[in-house]
Specification:
single chain; alpha+beta; nine-stranded antiparallel beta sheet; seven-stranded antiparallel beta sheet; 17 helices; 27 strands; globular
Length: 629
């Protein structure tokens, strides 16, 4: 105890000696680190930074903290005190996947450090406390990875020693079956919670733990390969360290401040090209515990940091799993990403992909320092429906709508929200042009279209042609609403401290909302680099000169030639006609297609390419193949 007290005092004193976290430091230089040894040193330094920062926050007399115990075990600091703290912590075990996987880390890190009494306390928690499995893809990834690892750690034990009532072997078989099923889905028809701004951690951390601690070599390999797949997808869809839309799951903060998300933590730790969010995104602490056991291969590192040309990446994903109010279990999502050095444009075809947190399309422009910047433009229909929620949630119908707000999704039932998908939105994209059409059924909550205009836009000009021109960073933007509109403040959501539940307030940060209160509606957005034009006026002239006709009745339809010369007719409820041919999504979309990521639908195999480097992840043979072309 005396040693422990001295250690706590030393850690507290060290607070002033530890470097400030990278979240408050200078923006990293956008330089490619050429040497593998140097990349490894910098990667390990980022891990150490995060662990040092959290341990330096510990003060004498602080209550027992699960995360601190795990970090000390990772550093092999005072295992006797860690054992006592584990026993104290396990007196009131938690419930569900967000509790399960951190406790797995305690069990695995403590295998050769914790006392038998501490290990028994952990083990007993998995006997007496029934664990809630959840109802989403990320819940099940965490739940079954945790159950798998604990069942491996405690083999040959009977059902009465597990909360499931099943034996270790039965738990292991069930967990393995689900994890392989999920990996098969993701590698054949795409992930359901695709490109999540925060929930990426709920996949990356379990897969890191699986690749580190699974005893079965095949499951270790699967975990490693899924990490490669997840991070390759992240790299190809990030612009200078910031994941941009579309996203199956995001939130009211990161949908407008694109940097402020856990995905940024993973870009920081893997690629070192962006400051991490405050507190390393929270869940980053749990990734640090085993991060030294995995590092992205060079080919993925270079996709994130070393690009020399514009590119289009097309990916196949899927909607969230449907439980009722639908004839299909899930529908395909056809995603398009167009990347340039100055900006990125991304979308999927629209529709109701997730009941609350989907972000369908946007233009995100680059800024030197993304912290606090709302560098994005988009529109949406603020759809709110109890029946719609019943499609995706297995709860009783009565809590629908108000239950979402009570459980931390404050904007869901607000007419001025800037987050969510709608069954009445249809989107088409070609490179840096987006056409979004809306035909909202009468009586729908709500009959309007919201366009988000950032506080960080400059030169916003409402032109008599009907176009609204603006500039974001080095990007020129043209926004064409197809129906009349008014302006109102776009109030952001800020969570307030609360002893129980959630409490929120609205904050005016200077963003504006284009409110177009018409059921038949549409938005056209065209982006271009400022370097392409003599000046802003020349860009405006080029936009005004584009051939464009549209009508809103009987359904919205647009015929135009884009800035890049593509001729399109987009009509709500019909396939877009592109350069004279109807677009057949099902026939033309592969699982991944682009200069960096390529995979056939149903193939279970991803080819990752950058220059002469190539890595093939083949889940059919559970092999990773690297070659220099």
């Amino acid at each position: 105890m005396k040693f422990s007290a001295l250690l706590l005092s030393a850690l507290a004193l060290a607070t002033s000696l530890v470097a400030q976290p990278s979240s408050t430091g200078p923006v990293p230089a956008r330089e490619v680190v050429q040497g593998a040894d140097q990349r490894r040193r910098e990667y390990l330094a980022r891990i150490d930074e995060g662990i040092d920062w959290r341990l330096a926050m510990v003060k004498p007399g602080d209550p027992v903290n699960r995360d601190v115990i795990a970090l000390r075990l990772a550093r092999r600091i005072d295992p006797a005190q860690c054992s006592r703290d584990v026993i104290e912590y396990m007196k009131e075990p938690g419930n569900g996947p967000f509790w399960m996987f951190p406790v797995v880390a305690l069990a695995e890190l403590g295998r050769d450090q914790l006392t038998p009494e501490a290990k028994a306390a952990i083990r007993d928690g998995w006997r007496k406390d029934v664990q809630w499995r959840g109802d989403t893809e990320n819940h099940w990834a965490m739940y079954y990875t945790s159950l798998y690892l604990m069942s491996e750690l405690y083999p040959n034990e009977p059902g009465n020693t597990w909360y499931t009532g099943k034996s270790s072997a039965e738990n292991l078989a069930e967990a393995r079956e689900y994890l392989i099923h999920w990996m098969d889905l993701a590698t054949t028809v795409g992930q359901g919670e695709f490109n999540p701004t925060h929930y990426i951690g709920e996949y990356a951390i379990p897969m890191l733990y699986l690749s580190t601690w699974a005893k079965d070599p095949a499951m270790r390999q699967r975990g490693h390969m899924m990490l490669d797949w997840i991070f390759a997808d992240l790299a190809a869809n990030s612009l200078h360290g910031v994941l941009r839309g579309p996203n199956a799951r995001t939130d009211d903060t990161s949908v407008i401040e694109r940097w402020n998300a856990l995905a940024t933590f993973f870009n920081w730790i893997n690629f070192g090209d962006v400051p991490p969010p405050a507190g390393y995104g929270g869940w980053g602490i749990h990734y640090f515990l085993a991060a030294a056991n995995y590092q992205v291969p060079e080919v993925i590192y270079r996709i994130a940091t070393d690009r020399d040309a514009d590119y289009t990446q097309r990916d196949l994903k899927r909607t969230r799993r449907r439980w009722r109010e639908s004839s299909t279990l899930f529908d395909p999502v056809y995603k398009t990403s167009y990347m340039r050095n100055d900006y990125a444009v991304g979308s999927f075809q629209g529709g109701y992909a997730d009941p609350i947190q989907t972000h369908v399309w946007d233009v995100t422009w680059d800024v030197a320092d993304p912290r606090g910047v709302h560098n994005t433009m988009f529109s949406l229909h603020p759809y709110s429906s109890g029946t719609g929620m019943q499609m995706y949630f297995s709860d009783y119908p009565e809590p629908m709508i108000h239950g979402a707000v009570d459980l931390g999704k404050p904007s869901y039932d607000s007419p001025d929200k800037v987050l969510g998908s709608s069954p009445y939105e249809q989107v088409w994209q070609d490179r840096d042009t987006v056409i979004a059409l809306y035909d909202i059924a009468p009586g729908t909550r709500f009959e309007r279209v919201n366009g988000f205009f950032s506080k960080d836009l400059t030169n916003v000009t409402e032109d008599k042609s009907g176009w609204i021109f603006a500039q974001g960073g080095k990007t020129y933007l043209a926004y064409r609403p197809l129906a009349s509109y008014t302006w109102e403040p776009s109030l952001n959501w800020k969570q307030l401290p609360a002893t129980t539940g959630y409490s929120w307030t609205r904050v005016d940060n200077g963003d504006k909302l284009l409110n177009s209160p018409h059921a038949k509606n549409g938005t056209i957005v065209q982006a271009a680099s400022a370097s392409e034009y003599k000046d802003f006026a020349a860009f405006q002239a080029a936009i005004r000169a584009l051939p464009l006709t549209f009508s809103l009745a009987p359904v919205p339809t647009v015929t135009m030639t884009t800035l890049r010369g593509t001729k399109v007719t987009a009509t709500y409820g019909q396939a877009p006609v592109v350069n004279g041919k109807p677009l057949d999504y099902a026939a033309t979309w592969k699982l991944h297609e682009g200069p960096y990521l390529n995979a056939e639908k149903g193939g279970r195999k991803l080819t990752i390419t950058h220059g002469h480097l190539e890595r093939v992840l083949d889940f059919n043979t559970l092999t990773i193949t690297d070659r220099v072309k």
